[in-house]
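Progress note, project year one: complex with zinc ion.
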Amino acid sequence: MIPVSMETGFFIYLLIWMLTISILWGRKLWRDHAQEWMLSKSRLFRCDSCHYAFINKENATISRCPRCNNVCIFRKHRRF
Ligand SMILES: [Zn+2]
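Model obtained:
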């Protein structure tokens, strides 16, 4: 066993806890950013059969309606 003084052991204990807390905090910030919902027109789908509006992943062009399970196709509106 490695001889360690009380102060050094306490310092290593605190250092490990601070490192663990900072890793968990960084992981939480990363997960919050990854799962963040942002509203935009490209994410908004509208079902043609039941007229239910819902949000889907970015850059998705086809999805299923969560209410009636109908296939919904995202149509980009052109500006004239
Ligand atoms: Zn529907």
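The chain has a mean pLDDT of 86.
The first helix runs from residue 6 to 34.
No further modelling is planned for this target in the current period.
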